[in-house]
Amino acid sequence: MSKFFVFVTGLIAALLPGMAAAQEASGLDARINAIFADYTGWYVSFIFAPLPGTSFSWIALWLVVGALVFTVYFGAIQFKGFVHSIRLVKGDYSDPNDAGEVSHFQALATALSGTVGLGNIAGVAVAVSIGGPGATFWMVVAGLFGMATKFTECTLGVKYRNEYPDGSVSGGPMYYITKGFKERGLPLGGFMAVMFSIFTILGALGGGNMFQANQAHAQISGVVGDYPGWITGVVLALVTFAVIAGGLKSIARVTEKVVPFMGIFYVLVSILILIINYDQIAWAFGQIFVGAFTGLGVVGGFTGALIQGFRRAAFSNEAGIGSAAIAHSAVRTKEPVTEGYVALLEPFIDTVVICTMTALVIVISGVLNFDPETGLYIWNAELGRIATEGDVGGVALTSAAYAQAFSWFPVLLMVAVVLFAFSTMISWSYYGLKAWTYLFGEGAMKELVFKIIFCLFIVIGAAASLGPVIDFSDAMLFSMAIVNIIALYFLMPIVRRELNSYVSRLKSGEIVKFKQ
Q1: pLDDT at 193 over 90
Q2: CATH number for 430
Q3: Which among 196, 312, 406, 473 could disulfide-bond with 483, CB atoms 3.0 to 4.6 Å apart, if both were Cys?
Q4: What is the pTM of this model?
């Protein structure tokens, strides 16, 4: 572990001298990019490699297959337990005397703040522009199955968490891998937990941090005009540090306000646009359902729609990554299964609701070029996607779609992107911190070191263009899923035992409501 600590601190020492000049000279960016591309490019290519003869990455299939397995194994728990999940979030069964730091709702909001973000804004646009409207259908299907994965990992997160005398807790895959494997007499639990923790720290500093800061600056500068990225980085870093310095309770207080505001705002604007264009809603759903099985002229047809939908769902809701289990493990409860129920709502809110809203607005807005004579979308072979108004893609496509109804929406989207990025960063700071303390031990000074490192990387991410670095960090996020899902396969019998016990006691009346 000392070598890893030296590596991280050495990297910061190498980056700091050039950080102030990152905007003016690209030499530092180029050197860092070259180093990462040379030494990590092979690993990034491996993680995101497509299956032979397809454009579907094997890591996305790994997540989808896992979701299918857990859905079958737990008897479609995401559908049978949906109503009970809502009751738990409302606090109907919450005992204020239970161990833990946050309520069910706060844990859900914290975990959602790490997943609801650019994947919902830009990711959906990418899926629809490449796979056609039909990609939305498969995105929803994948999201529904992913609910079972969240149930599994978050139940384990609470069951095997560490509870400390001061009332704080630490949990997540690194803990349930170590303890669960030991309980079942399985080897390699310690090794897998260490690997997961390393992947989590690197993923938190990159995809959960630098990428978010970089995209926030890009959206702000696109609206207000170009200016040095380090300014955005310093502001975000100071605000983020002010929040994360207060620990999980401070993070939870912010996310329980920011996340509902973001989600409600985004959904309300989407609904308003759909109401204005109510006469096109049936047509839009028709495009989604027909396109799911025919492709509507999109290259790849049915297969292309399915691939894009599954891929974007996997990238959006993070079911199977293991990150959510870290946030949910801090909930106040003595029943691990209750947080599994709460967690299964995440992919539903993230993918089924918000992503579907975005897709409907994009389809209805007319920004996708459609040939009414043939009933097919016009394909831009040069860009490898459906032709769009202004040839925009990603977050710009979503912005253009909403701007068709409200010219002022790009400004509000800028605010939303910044809030999404901010909430994602503070959540991933907690995920990275828990992995850090697992490797190096608990303690205020050790925690402060990580928080300072995390905030420095915010400035670096906003000021620099570090493509290969961010690609590597994204690969780390999905490397977490390799370790985590292997562990879930071995530990899911424990989850089923917990589920059966909980359901039987709920039916017998042994588990009672605290709020009528």
Answers
A1: yes
A2: 1.10.4160
A3: 196
A4: 0.81
